Amino acid sequence: MEIDIRNASDIGVAVRAARKAQRLRQDDAAGSIGVSESFLGKVEKGAESVHWGKLFQVLDGLGVRVSVDIPDEAGELFAGEEIKRDARVERAEKRRRAREDADES
After folding, report:
1. Which of 30, 36, 62, 80 is the residue whose CA sits 20 to 30 A from 53?
2. Contact at 8 Å (CB) between 15 and 59?
3. HTH cro/C1-type domain location, by residue (predicted)?
4. Burial class (CB within 10 angstroms; exposed 0-12, middle 13-18, buried 19+) of 48
């Protein structure tokens, strides 16, 4: 089912519905996803400031996919930005591995 998300509260409703559809208690869902029950509660209540990484961990853990509908004109720019991001991530990973290798020496 596709729904429009306009704010944090809408995400909270979607997360709560996904959890309840799986018949999971909040504490059980949080434990299996790897976040605190408190954090999951904040997400479900639509807290305005939550850690993005943990939010996507919750969404993934409950099988909630997120998509964004951007204007057609932005599509080509988006592809270019993705390539830049991937290159930055790859450079950071190489630096991390080099530091680990140096620490092992």
Report:
1. 80
2. yes
3. 15-70
4. exposed
